[in-house]
Write a structure and sequence with these properties.
heterodimer, A: 109 residues, six-stranded mixed beta sheet, B: 113 residues, four-stranded antiparallel beta sheet, 11 strands, globular
Chain lengths: 109, 113
């Protein structure tokens, strides 16, 4: 069983809309979660981390963690074409990060 | 992007060749990682080094041999690879305290013919 799962997409949203990216995890993954963004042909970069139940906001980005449902999400408000990328959800587990396969986001102008 | 560098950026090698990938971090970190990224698959952790000591080997075949001479440099030595080893190999670094907040290099695109 996969430890971190994401819908591969692509998720298409119009410019200015809210993009909602979702991730579920198994019990084995710890309670620390991270969102990495990977542009095509580039390496992943950390954009959000969340350690406790609830919401964490940073600019246009909001990460949400629901431990009871084993669910992590990333909301991007006022989506821009420059947000088009693959978004990787990851959970911290012991000595390592466990990544999902990523969700492709396309923001159409 | 200059925080973690990797060379070469692209590599084509035959199944009988021996080559090495190099990673260098300029961030003062003390943990370094090798990942494999194949199309449509999750990033796959290969090795973890903390303060030059290997702390994780994620069941990687012996044809991949890591080396970490100091906290700033990490190598991946390759020999007798298979075509299915073709992938993007990413190096990352972090502090030990924030080991999940990792900074990635640009990667080496490896093709095994």
């Amino acid at each position: 069983q996969k430890e971190v799962e994401q819908n591969s997409g692509p998720l298409s949203v119009p410019e200015g809309a809210i993009a909602s990216l979702n991730c579920t995890y198994s019990d084995r993954v710890s309670q620390s979660f991270f969102w990495y963004r990977q542009y095509s042909g580039k390496s992943p970069e950390l954009i959000m981390s969340i350690y406790s139940n609830g919401d964490k906001e940073d600019g246009r980005f909001t990460a949400q963690l629901n431990k009871a449902s084993q669910y992590v999400s990333l909301l991007i408000r006022d989506s821009q074409p420059s947000d088009s990328a693959t978004y990787l959800c990851a959970g911290g587990y012991g000595n390592k990060l466990v990544f999902g396969a990523g969700t492709i986001l396309r923001v159409k102008s | 992007e200059t925080g973690v560098t990797q060379t070469p950026r692209h590599l084509v090698m035959g199944m009988t060749n021996k080559k090495s990938l190099k990673c260098e971090q300029h961030l003062g970190h003390n943990a370094m990682y090798w990942y494999k990224q194949s199309a449509k698959k999750p990033l796959e952790l290969m090795f973890v080094y903390n303060f030059k000591e290997q702390t994780e080997n994620n069941s990687v075949p012996s044809r991949f041999s890591p080396e970490c001479p100091n906290s700033s440099h990490l190598f991946l030595h390759l020999h007798t690879l298979q075509p299915e080893d073709s992938a993007l190999y990413l190096c990352a670094s972090s502090t030990k305290m924030s080991r999940y907040e990792q900074y990635f290099g640009p990667g080496t695109r490896l093709t095994v013919t």
